[in-house]
Write the C-alpha cells for this entry.
Amino acid sequence: MLSIYQKGIVEEICKSYCEGIQVNGKIILKGMVQWIEERINKYCSSEKEAVKELKSKLTTVKVKEILETQPDKLIDIWNEFKIYENLKKDDDDSNTILENIFHYETFRSYRSTIINGYWLAQELGVDCCPYCNRNYTMSHKHNYDLIKKENKYVFPSFDHFYPKETYPLLALSFYNLIPCCNACNSDYKGARDPNDINKSDYKILHPYTDFKNDHFSFDFIPEEYEDLVGKNKKIDLKINYKNNFIRSDLEKSIKFFGILENYSNHRDMIQDIMDKKITFSDRYLSIIQSTYGLDFQTTYKMLFEVHYDDEKLFKLPFSKLKKDVYDKLEEIRKKSTRLI
Ligand SMILES: [Zn+2]
C-alpha cells in the first residue's frame, strides 16, 4: 500500500479534469463537468416526474461537487441520489440513467477533444500500482495499425474505490478513480465495498488521503549482522506499524491486497538488496557522492535502482520494500562494530 498524494499537483489535475484545458482562451480539451452535463441532457429527456426531478438536482454546481469532492464525502453525495439508483429513462433500457450519465467505459475510450482515461493516467504519472507496488501501470500510445494510422492508447485500470456497481453516481469522481494493476483491481479488490458495514475487513485506506508512506515499514528477521551472511541467512518478512491511529485499517489494507504473501515470493529481491547494501558500503556511497557531486537520493537510485524519496515510491516497483530493507540494514550496521 502506497500513498499517491502529491501536494498541489493532485489538486491541479483534479481542476483540469473537471474544467478541461484551455490555451489562449480556447478550449482544447473539454472538461468532465461539461461532458457530464451533455449526458444529463441526453439521458434525462423524459417526461417522467422522477427523471425531471433527478435532472433538476444535477445542477452544474452539484456535478462539479460529485466529480471533485474528497473521498470522505463521496458516500454522503451518493446518499443524496440513492433514491434514483434504479431509475431508467425508458423501462426497457438495460442501463439506469445514472449508469448512462456517469459512463466509465466511454470515459476509457480515447477522444482527442474531451478529458479521458488516457489523459488522466498520463497526468497522474502513477507508474506503478499503489496497492501492491509490484506491477507497472504506465501508459503510452501504441501504433496499432500503421497503414490506417490507427493508435491504441494503453493505460492502466482505474479501481473504483467505491465500486461503480454499487455507486454508479461515483463512477467518474476524480478521487474514486485509483490507477492500479489488473491483479489488484480484479483479483484482489473486485467489487468489494470499503463502505460495507457488514464487512469490516473491507475497510481499506484510500491512497490519496488516509495515510503516509512512513506510517509503516517492512521489516525482516534477522536482527544481527552475523545472520545476514553465510549459509544460514534467514529472511522472514513482517510489517511494523508506526501510526497507532490508522494501524487497524492499514493492517486490513495490507491483508486485503495479500501484500505479505505476494512479497514472500520475492525473497530473492530482498537478498539482492542485502547483498548490495553490504557491497555498496556507506564509504562507497560517500565516495560516489563527492566524486560526481551527487546527492544521496540520486546515488541511492543509481545503485539500488529505486527511489528513496517517500513521495516517489509509487514510481517504481518494490521501492517501499527496498527502502525499508535498506533502512533496516543501516540500523543493524549502526549497532554493529562490523562494516556493512
Ligand atoms: Zn497492484
